[in-house]
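Bit of a strange request maybe. I'm writing a small parser for structure token strings and I need a real example to test against, not something I typed by hand. Could someone generate the tokens for this chain?
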Amino acid sequence: MTVYDSLFWFFSLAMLLSAVLVILSPNAVASALYMVLLFLFMAGLFVLLEAFFLAIIQVLVYAGAIMVLFLFVVMLLDAREPRRWWSNNVMGLVGGPLVGGAFLAAVVMVLRKTQWTVAEKGGAFSGNLEQVVAPVFADYLLPLEITALLLLAATIGVIVLGRKDDAS
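Reply from user aminoacidic:
Good idea to test on real output. This should exercise your parser:
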């Protein structure tokens, strides 16, 4: 086993452990910090793949900016007192599994149409920033815009969930 193999296994197992701790942690702030660890270990995997740009973006954007946003939302929601929003939300109980099933069906459809190939051994990535970013805005503009709309919907959902109910 080479150094690369042992580092791969270290980062992979550490990512799995961090992901499990994100799910199992009762404290929302601790879960967010475990997710920061997960992002850092993922950046380590990118370094092993010699994708240094992606590793830096992983640390700056996800472990930095996105997690600051998550922590801000956690503090805004004041998650100390648990709410039982599922007890009287019939639309959520019916719509949640339907949306989850539709998402699963879409993932299965995409995976069936994907042609899996194995990369050549010893092939080096010779892409620069222009080769990475140009297809995003040329070929994948619609998925990028859909992702932006989903993030906007999630932000509006956080605002709705975080507002204080005035019974006066």
